[in-house]
Every structure is written in C-alpha cells, then in structure tokens.
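Batch job 17 of 40 flagged for manual review because the log was empty.
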Amino acid sequence: MAEGMKNLRTKALFLGIAALAMMGLYSYFIADTIMTRITDAQMTKVDDMFMIATEERPFVNYDARYRLKFDSGTIQNDAIRLEGKIVRIKKYGWRVPALSWYENVVKIEEVQQR
C-alpha cells in the first residue's frame, strides 16, 4: 500500500511539473492582444531591437526567425505613424523586469474610434 501511494505521488508531481511547463511554453509562444495608446516609438534600435512605449508598458520589436517574423522595420514604422492613437497590439513573450525581458510585437493596428 505504501509503495502504491509513493508511486501515485511521484506521478502526480511529474504531471504537475509537466502541466506548468506546458502552460509556460504556451504563454510564451502563443500571441495575445492588448489595446493601449502608443506614447513613443523611434526608428533607432537599442541592443538590436526597436522599442515601443505604451501607456500600459514597454514592448520590443525585433525579427524572430523561429516565428518567421521578418518585418520589424514595417511594424516599427506603423508604431511611429500611430503614435498617440489607440491601437491593438498583437504580442508574445513575457515582461520580466529583473531580466530586462520584454514582450515582442507581432502586429499593430489602429482601433477606430466611434
């Protein structure tokens, strides 16, 4: 009986760790959307990345080969053009200030005001 409980706990622990890992990978690789206002964007790269400041938080914009994203210059131009406007930003990744990690922008589009 004791051996069966130990086996069950080991399996439960393994499944819990696997579920946490899958949630982490999912949240990093699957893009989500946020609505905000762009406060600053420039065509100057910092550490080989464009920066986009919004009312919510800062984002980066860089080419990501593993995502087949090669249009960071176009996206940055859109960010500059839409500065001061409400936009919908599609992004992925995590914001971890202690590690200087930012979410990467995939797409920016203006939200039409009614």
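Reviewer: the log was empty due to a logging misconfiguration, but the result itself is present. The beta strands are 32-41, 50-54, 58-61, 86-92, 104-110. Unflagging and moving on to job 18.
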